[in-house]
Design a protein that fits this description.
This protein is of the alpha+beta class. It has one domain: 3-Layer(aba) Sandwich (Chemotaxis protein chec). The chain has six helices and eight strands; from the N terminus they run ββαββααββαββαα. The strands form two sheets. Strands 1-7-8-4-3-5 form a six-stranded antiparallel beta sheet, with helices on both faces. Strands 2-6 form a two-stranded antiparallel ribbon. A hairpin with a 2-residue loop joins strand 7 and strand 8. One of its GO terms (biological process) is negative regulation of DNA-templated transcription initiation. Its main location: cytoplasm.
Length: 164
């Protein structure tokens, strides 16, 4: 048993009900040190304790996946046809920019220089919970995203096609 009576597996990760996944929520601001290390939000560290995968996001951000979620996403991408040029491009972008990361004893991950450059990360980062994974943004890029919503530059009709 872990804190608050939560069961943990042999790797120390929280045991979730069968078929359940952690739900990542919220916005966190953390520094990035000179070596490129960044603290993970404390409440989510147990889910990444056995390792994680960090890769380029579609916008200028990074995606951080738990190992189980990475396997699910990789499986779906792996089913794309090799004969489709778009599928090959997506695989190159997504897998070519992916790195295995393991948090240190303090709960920090090392963000490779190439990924820091891609996302424009210098000294500070905004970590955003996006349901099944985390996104890591530069503060200025994240602010631009928020302003698009706050200033009404994205009309409500835009979201109607998602049928939420």
């Amino acid at each position: 048993m872990g804190p608050r009576g939560r069961r943990k597996d042999e790797l120390g990760q929280p045991v979730l009900p069968p078929g359940d996944s952690p739900m990542f929520l919220g916005e966190y601001r953390h520094g990035i040190d000179a070596k490129g290390r960044m603290f993970l939000p404390a409440r989510y560290r147990p889910f990444f304790a056995a390792g994680a995968v960090l890769t380029r996001g579609l916008e200028p951000c990074l995606y951080l996946f738990t190992l189980p979620e990475w396997r699910r996403v990789a499986e779906r991408i792996g089913q794309l046809p090799l004969t489709a040029p778009e599928a090959r491009e997506w695989r190159r972008f997504f897998f070519g920019g992916a790195f295995d990361v393991i948090p240190d004893e303090q709960g920090r991950i090392l963000i490779p220089a190439s990924l820091r450059a891609y996302a424009g990360l210098e000294g500070q980062a905004v970590i955003v919970g996006v349901h099944t994974y985390l996104e890591i943004w530069s503060p200025s890029a994240w602010q631009e995203i928020l302003e698009r919503f706050q200033n009404g530059r994205i009309p409500p009709e835009h979201w109607m096609k998602l049928e939420i």
